[in-house]
From TrEMBL:
Gene Ontology terms: biological process: carbohydrate derivative metabolic process
InterPro entries: Homeodomain-like_sf (IPR009057), HTH_RpiR (IPR000281), RpiR-like (IPR047640), RpiR-like_SIS (IPR035472), SIS_dom (IPR001347), SIS_dom_sf (IPR046348), WH-like_DNA-bd_sf (IPR036388)
Organism: Ruegeria halocynthiae
Lipid biosynthesis listed as a keyword: no
Sequence ranges assigned to domain SIS in this UniProt record: 134-272
Protein name: Transcriptional regulator, RpiR family
Domain HTH rpiR-type per the UniProt entry, residue ranges: 8-84
Pfam families associated with the record: HTH_6, SIS
Length: 295
């Protein structure tokens, strides 16, 4: 994503109108949503080829969101790149040094570079207002169900573990021996579902979000594309970057976003949360759970 108010206008409108577009126009819009930087540097034919559609489809998509044509459509994206693309010479030199350090230097540099870029791109497109709104719904809820499967199951459980130091209404799902839909059986409009999945999207997560929507839950979605079925049905949508040169998606930005979201929950919480956290850790010290050199 390009990290300017373009994502608050053009990209949000594209995401909101996906279901109304023809299949070909939806392909074009999805490509733009997932590769907005390309728009600023590519011709209509290049974008059409990359999206595997005809150039006329790109033009129609641009008109769908209020522009006269593709050239008019791409101007805000070009401006965003011109104003918002930061240079990090010190980091670049550091990464180059890593690449030269040995046989594994290239891999090391690629992993580090992707981790840093993932965090930057994720937070470049998230405002404090978005986080505050989600945090308020979480704090004011009866129960918070945090859903992740595969690697995201660990991310969900880590989030719930951290929250448990001051709050008791957080639950990581699916529970052992259960499934997400059963875990949401008695949830309703008083509850919140935090759901996360990246490509290829897991059916159980997508289906659980649909069920949660029908039952009236507030939904906080984390996924790697504005076109994700999880985000299209969410009250609070957060696009995370999960690129990596390896076979697995990166969890770095997911964890960073969840930790930041939790910090906002604590910030909007009532004063009792501070006492709860202090009591929790005081109890741990009293029970000898923390190592001390004095013992």
């Amino acid at each position: 994503m390009i990290g300017t108010n373009v994502s608050d206008t053009i990209l949000e409108r594209l995401a909101g109108e996906l279901s109304e577009l023809t299949p070909e126009a939806r392909k074009a819009a999805t490509y733009v949503l997932e590769n907005p930087r390309d728009v600023g540097v590519s011709t209509v034919r290049e974008i059409a080829e990359a999206a595997n559609v005809k150039p006329n489809t790109i033009v129609r998509m641009a008109r769908q969101v209020g522009f006269e044509g593709y050239e008019d459509f791409r101007v805000p994206f070009r401006e965003a790149i011109r104003r918002g693309q930061a240079d990090f010479p010190d980091r670049a030199r550091w990464l180059q040094d890593i690449r030269k350090s040995g046989n594994m230097g290239g891999l090391y540099a690629d992993m580090v570079q992707d981790a840093l870029r993932n965090v930057e791109e994720t937070f470049a497109n998230i405002s404090s207002g978005q986080l505050k709104a989600a945090a308020e719904d979480i704090w004011n809820s009866r129960n918070v169900f945090v859903l992740g499967v595969g690697v995201n199951n660990s991310n969900a459980r880590n989030f719930v573990y951290l929250a448990s130091t001051g709050m008791v209404q957080f639950h990581a799902i699916p529970r052992s021996g259960s499934n997400p839909i059963d875990d949401l059986a008695w949830a309703d409009k008083r509850d919140v579902l935090i759901a996360m999945t990246c490509k290829p999207y897991r059916n159980e997560v997508v289906e659980a979000v649909h069920v949660a929507r029908e039952q009236g839950l507030k939904i906080v979605g984390l996924s790697d594309s504005p076109a994700s079925p999880v985000l299209r049905n969410a009250d609070h949508s957060f696009v995370i970057s999960a690129d990596t040169p390896q076979f697995f998606p990166s969890s770095v930005s997911t964890i960073a976003l969840l930790e930041t979201l939790l910090s906002f929950v604590i910030a909007v919480a009532s004063n009792e949360i501070v006492n709860r956290v202090e009591t929790f850790h005081k109890r741990r010290h009293q029970l000898g759970l923390y190592h001390s050199e004095d013992t």
